[in-house]
Amino acid sequence: MNTHDSALAARDGLPPDARRLAMLSVAIGVGMASLDTAIANTALPAIADQLHTTPAASVWIVNVYQLAMVATLLPFAALGEVIGYRRVCIFGLALFTAASLACALAWSLPSLVVARLFQGIGGAAMMGVNTAMIRTIFPARLHGQGFGFNSLVVAVAFAVGPTAASLILAAATWPWLFAINVPLGIAAILLARRALPHNVRATHKIDAPTAILNVFAFGLLILTFGDAAHQEGWHKLLPELVATLIFFGLLLRRQAGHAAPMLPVDLFKLPLFTLSALTAVCTFAAQGLAFVSLPFYFEHTMGRSPIETGFLMTPWAVLVAVMAPIAGRLSDRYPPGALGGIGLALLSSGLVAMLMLPDQPSAFDIGWRMAWCGVGFGFFQAPNLKAIMSSAPPTRAGGASGIVATARLLGQATGAALVAYCFTLSATRGTTYALILAAVFSGVASIASFSRLVVAQR
Known about the structure:
The protein is mainly α. The chain folds into 3 domains: about 200 residues, Growth Hormone, Chain: A, CATH 1.20.1250; about 50 residues; about 200 residues, MFS general substrate transporter like domains (Growth Hormone, Chain: A, Up-down Bundle). Helix content is about 80%, strand content about 0%. The N terminus is likely disordered. It is a multi-pass membrane protein. It holds the Pfam family MFS_1.
């Protein structure tokens, strides 16, 4: 990094005009990575039909993307600290865009799965350094505003994903679901090269064996979660679980004593960071439990159509999008622990309200409860992002950024696996059990969030 770049890295955020261009580039990347998760889930039946494959086999189109993302998030976050978040972000944009083109040109299930694998790796590069990049783009006094905008982009992507997939499939074939990323990705790359700032780089080096162990440890963990969600037997789950524990043990042993461990155990020694990460995992587990189980209740129990189900789920996502920037601005003035605690208490009470639905609920009965949950969830996200990032030293922003994305994906995977378990207990009451667990998880998250107020005073 030359003298000019060093001066840029030392500056507290970018000027307003440059900041807007940089955030537009980041928003396109994060939006594409989030949107592709929602789009692929919605379009899976259509893709399976057109590729002449079975529903069980087509699930790998979704699974391999999530597996690749979680397995490579922390290595890319660590790499960002060493070579710069800007380089990793641009690499992620380029790989994601090229892989999207490969997805659009795929001629069979194996070719699509391989392309989705690389798409997930590209997405991990972007998401792994995402919040660290925002911390560099915005001045310290506006970090909450930046994280609020990021939460808004993710919420909007998840909200419009199913609708966008339906509209595209109504007018064209499934390859266009991925082809639309190509012009967006090219625009984001050009903006990123022009506007993304440099950061002060760490002096340590990346240890390749540690990165490989990290990939296997987290890859096996997500594979185990996925197999549990699909109710595989213990003859398959037990060996996967044992292998996961072995690789995590080897990873911790390999990185012991490293100044900046890839799995950032050094950051977990900070109480505020640990409580914030725990809050995130529990909250996204609650979201996963609700989002996976409620469609079964709406369609199987209430007899609603898939389109009606989509509309019934929409108030949650819409209110998250509305509240995210508001909560972000408030977190620049008030303690994130208090804001997150209040939001998660609202989420927990909203989930309890869902459990108390009448026997024949109207759309309004469901809608206001989903909106209430969305308000609570939206009030949590940006303040929690700020708490995680501000509790880590600037030199470890990459590791903290990796944990932000990892906590979200691990929480969602945990929630999905627990839904599967709830339905094995009872096919008719599985949704009720899942919502009870979701309310408990969000309640625990609220307590963890409020406890940060005590820790911050020490």
